[in-house]
Amino acid sequence: RSIAVIDGDGIVLVVDEDVHSVLPGHPAVRFAGEASTSCMLVAGPTRDFNVMTRRGACEHEVLTMHLLVSAP
């Protein structure tokens, strides 16, 4: 399983007692789906992107990209 925050101030994710700051624009955090997890919002609501795959059946990778858009 992978989770990335795409909007908001982020979350603090605890996976089997390991603490991760998941912030917008930063790499996704990858962890086993059966792990014990909890999370807290940093400040206010967030929007996140989750990917879950069945181990042994397929694999995934989540990449964070920063796009520059110029006005016409």
What can you see in these coordinates?
Helix content is 0%, strand content 39%. It has 72 residues and is mainly β. A three-stranded antiparallel sheet has the order 4-1-6, with no helix packed on it. It has a three-stranded antiparallel sheet with strand order 3-2-5, with no helix packed on it. The mean pLDDT is 92.
Termini gap: 39 Å
Average pLDDT across residues? 92
Cα Rg: 14 Å
Give the biggest sheet.
Answer: 3 strands, antiparallel
Keywords:
mainly beta, flat, 72 residues, 3-stranded antiparallel beta sheet, 0% helix, 39% strand
Describe how the helices and strands are arranged.
Elements: E1 2-7, E2 11-15, E3 18-22, E4 29-30, E5 37-41, E6 47-51
Antiparallel strand pairs: 1-4, 1-6, 2-3, 2-5
Short structural description:
The protein has 72 residues and is mostly beta strands.
